[in-house]
Fold each of these.
Amino acid sequence: MVFNTRMFNNSLKRNIRKCFNNHVLCKLELEPSQKVVVSNENCLFTQMPQDILIGSGLIIPKKHRENVFELSEDDWADTFDLVKKVKAYLDENHQPNGYNLA
């Protein structure tokens, strides 16, 4: 039997995209406790109730990207803009001792 790796890889990529397009970062309604706190044209900041990392959340692009290297220049600019807005929000609401960006 001949194994067609190109066909397998394409099929695998389609299945991965289908799976990733149905997770809580692409479909926020799948996690009812997840709330959009701040957003702009290309990305949003979400939070879920946390017992330990109070105020923590995620900045995610509105358009699905397979990895960070696929972000457009507008995505990058809006992400940086949102980081500044989220910092102001966290300063006002949580007064953190510091920040971690990853």
Note: The longest strand covers residues 35-39.
Amino acid sequence: MFDQPVQLEIFPTDLHLRRIDSAYNMRRFYRLSVQRDLFGGACLIREWGRIGYRGQVMIETHDDEGKAITALMKLAAAKRKRGYLGIGTSDLGQESQTRSPTRPVRLSAARS
């Protein structure tokens, strides 16, 4: 049981990201997955949308698994720049801090 070494993945093949910002009523997810196809290549499956809904799916085909993982890492970096956080991170429960709310707050004046 404990005598077999465990190999950890250096390059992830599945990635789940979220972006939650209640100031903009934004609850988005972005899911990336690399899977082998029947022809010896690899597919990068991208799924995105609003949390709680099915969302959209796009499948990109690549020559090998290394190119698909490279594309996954590039997309993940771009999404993290835009404020998406990984599901396994400790700061997931906090709202994204990439943009501060700039919408003005309308205060209703009391009429007499």
Note: Confidence is low (pLDDT under 50) at residues 89-107.
